[in-house]
Amino acid sequence: MMSMIMASFLSAALLLLVPGILTEKGYGKKNIELTIVNSISNAPNETYSADIVFRGILLGAMRRLQQTNADFKFTYTEDLNYGPFLESVNGVAGDNAEHTYWELLVQIGKNGSVIRPDVGIGCYIPEPNDCIILNFTKW
Fold this sequence. Notes:
139 residues; Ferric Hydroxamate Uptake Protein, Chain A, domain 1; three-stranded antiparallel β-sheet; 2 helices; globular; signal; Transcobalamin-like C-terminal domain-containing protein
């Protein structure tokens, strides 16, 4: 019994001590597409390509994209109950008085249907070749 507990503990510790273990070989970075749409002003869409690690969350890919691409910027706040809440993208911010916000949509595959995930940027786990759509719109 004690050897089983030790083996479990050592396995968990190994995962914590080996940085990047899930980003090696078969678990490497995957590519997703991120499209910025402004449904209110009808500004031209902006499309970016972002890397995401195996089973990584969208927020991580967005942070990585912001660090590597000066043209992509976003801000968010952390809600204690619901997690990250997207506030602005590329200088365009949602406004309660104007009833505007950033909506998360996902096109499954290159020509698939568009869905509205039931989670936000802090919990959504994109699949390779997903097209993430950040849509500025009104409620």
